[in-house]
Amino acid sequence: MDDIMETPLPFRWKPLHIDRYVGTTDLDEHIDMYTTQVNLYTNEDAILCRVFLTSLKGATLN
Considering the domain boundaries, does residue 17 fall inside one? Predict the structure, then answer.
């Protein structure tokens, strides 16, 4: 996991423009929106994993 967290974010990375997932909406839809946003910058699995926690909120983050 340390390797993933040490993977540098792509040049000009900006925060994602999606609502953070709290567990009350469709998870598949959230993941689709998340991957679409990240894939604007990269399709690296390490980045998808590193940034995913920023798309969660509340109990889903814990």
Answer: no
